[in-house]
Automatic annotation (TrEMBL):
This is Uncharacterized protein. It holds the Pfam family DUF72.
Length: 292
């Protein structure tokens, strides 16, 4: 049985900070992370999607967390073909005028520079053994097909030596008749397939599965079950407080995945107030109770 690490997809979310989960005296940048790491063993750096992470922050994160703690870093939006605002780029790259950023497209010089800076930023985590994975969450229009497979292969070449995880948002990747091919593709690339829990019955709904394509690591992300998924703001899309019964139903599936992987990361992305960290603590307790 592999080790199961349960956590949330942010420790700096404004609503979490204001929820009271962090005690008095632990609400500054250092105090928040130290407190989080004393309660949960893994966290996703969701902010890496919105802006390039910095090497200095990674060094501080290493200093402020114990051995065995894991950071799963979400890849910058430009690296997964998402629309990227110019304001999200470092000021010197904006001034350099390396080319416009459009949906799924960026000038080669800009893309090369961003890849290099992202790699430099996460290196302290990798070197210290704190980097759980780099999560590449591809957009809903990243559909199965030759072009997408070529893009995945290019991503694997760029990330040689990194632990790589892939989450698809297009439901075609895991639909009946295609799932086995997707499993084989990611397994052949040495990439971790990310399983998901989300609301069902919508056009973009992904099935509740926990595929294991890489023996070293499996990942499952819980997005909540809001019926407003796919529309509205963040609070609308991720507003869901998991009931204990909803979490308990996942325990057998997670334990099966853990039997196939050295490490399993279970991450809660329903980041509204403190519901994600509370769900993580509840899930951790459920998994521990079932081991006894």
């Amino acid at each position: 049985m592999g080790e199961i690490l349960v956590g949330a997809c942010s420790w700096t979310d404004r609503q979490l900070v204001g929820s009271g989960w962090y005690p008095r005296g632990r609400r500054d940048a250092e105090g928040r992370l130290r407190h989080y790491a004393s309660r949960l063993p893994v966290v996703e750096v969701d902010s890496g999607y919105y802006a390039l992470p910095s090497r200095r922050n990674s060094e501080l994160w290493v200093e402020r967390t114990p051995d065995g703690f894991r950071f799963d870093v979400k890849a910058f939006s430009l690296l997964t073909g998402h629309p990227t605002r110019a304001e999200a780029l470092p000021a010197d790259l904006r001034r350099a005028g390396l080319g416009p950023v459009r949906r799924g497209q960026a000038a080669p010089a800009l893309l090369d520079e961003v890849w290099g800076r992202f790699a430099e930023a996460v290196e302290p985590l990798r070197k210290a053994g704190r980097l759980g994975t780099v999560l590449f969450q591809f957009p809903p229009w990243f559909a199965p097909g030759a072009a997408s497979e070529e893009a995945l292969e290019a991503c694997v070449r760029r990330t040689a030596g990194w632990p790589l995880a892939v989450e698809f948002r297009h439901p075609g990747w895991w639909e009946a008749g295609r799932a086995d091919a997707t499993w084989e593709l990611l397994s052949g690339l040495g990439a971790t397939a990310v399983g998901t829990d989300m609301v069902q019955g919508l056009p973009g709904s992904l099935p509740p599965i926990a595929p294991v394509t890489r023996p070293a690591l499996a990942v499952v992300r819980f997005h909540g079950r809001s019926p407003d998924w796919g529309r509205g703001g963040k609070e609308d899309r991720f507003r869901h407080d998991y009931a204990p019964a909803e979490l308990a139903a996942w325990v057998p599936r997670l334990r099966r995945a853990a039997r196939q992987a050295e490490e399993l990361h279970v991450l809660f992305n329903n980041c509204c107030a403190d519901v994600a960290v509370r769900a993580a603590e509840t899930m951790s307790a459920l998994l521990t109770a079932r081991r006894r």
